[in-house]
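retry 2 of 3: previous attempt timed out while embedding alpha-L-rhamnopyranose. Reduced batch size to 1 and resubmitted. Inputs unchanged:
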Amino acid sequence: MKFLKPTRLGSAALAAIVVAAGTAGAASAATFSGPIKSGLVVYAIPKDTINPYEVIADNGIKTALSKLGGTVTVSSGTVDTAAAQEPSIQSAEQSHANAIIIAGNDPEALCSDLAQAQSAGTDVVSFDSDVSCPNHLFINQANTQQIGESEVQLLGKEIGYKGQIAILSAESTATNQNAWIKYMKVELKLPKYKNMKLVKIVYGNDEPTTSKTVLLGLLSAYPDLRGIISPTTVGIQTAAQYLDTHKKLLKQITLTGLGLPSQMRPYVEDGTVKEFELWNPANLGYLAGYAAANLASGMPLKAGEKFTAGKLGTYTILPPSGGTGLSVVLGPPTVFDKANIKDFNF
Ligand code: RAM
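retry 2 succeeded.
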C-alpha cells in the first residue's frame, strides 16, 4: 500500500478534496489499475474456523486470490477471542504475508500484533468485524446504521410495535454486533417504538451450545418476552431450532435477525421465522480479497480511491464516518421470506 505523502496544496485545495471525498461515489480518482502483483500471499483470519458463515466468507477470499494468482492461508482459533487470533497474525508476519484479512474478535486487542505485521510490510484489511487500529481498510458488509435500524424495523412490524424484546448476540466484544446494536438502540428511541422495550442483551459467543444456554436463560427470566433479534447467523439458527421444537412459544415470540438462508430455509418454510436478512458472505470475502490484493499491489489507502473487484465491479474507498475509518461497503442486505428464500444457496 502507498501511504499519502504530504503535498504543497493550500488549505482551500485541501478543503475541496475533503468535500469531494465526503460524497461517496462522487470522488474523481481514477480506478487503480495495478498491475496486481503475482504470487501474493494472503492470510485470512476469520473470527474462528468453525462458524459456517466465516467459512463461506473465507472461500470468497480464496476465489478472489486464485483468480489473481495468489494464495490464501486461513488461520484462526476455534473460539471467538482476540487471544485465539494473535498466533495467526504472528504467523502471517513470520511468513512475510503481503496482506492480512481479519474479522476482529475485539476492536482494540489485536492492534499491537497488527502494527508489528504492518511494520514488516503486511497490509491490513478488516472485514465482517472491524478493528480500530490505524492504517487499515474495513470491508463492510452493508451500511452499519441501516443494518441496526432495519433489524428493529423488521421485528417492530411483526409484533405490532409492542412488548418486551431482547437481543441474542455473538461475543460481547464483537465490533460488528456491537455497532449494529448501537443503532438498534437509536432506532428504538423513535416514538413509534414507545411500547417496545429492550429488556436484555445476551451473548452466545457464536457457539451453538452457549447460544442455547443464554436463550433458555432469557426465556425463563422474561416470561412475557415478545421478540428476539439475533444479529448473528449462529444465534438465529440456534433460536430458530429451539422455537421450531417448542412451537407453543411461537404464539408469543417472534424471531428475526441475520441468518444464512441455507440454514434458515426450513424454519421460514414452516413458519417459525417470517423474515430475516443478510448479505452474501462469499461476495464479502471476494471483495475483501480484491481490496487486499490492490492494496498490496500499491493502491493508495485513501478515500475516493477506486478499484475493480472482479465480477462485483468497481468500488470506492469511503472516508471515515461514524466511528468507522476508511471503508468499502459491499451493498445493501437482502430480506428473506417464504417467497424468495429458495433462490439463495449460501
Ligand atoms: C455470525 C458472525 C459474523 C456475522 C454474521 C451475521 O456468523 O458473528 O461476524 O457477520 O453472524
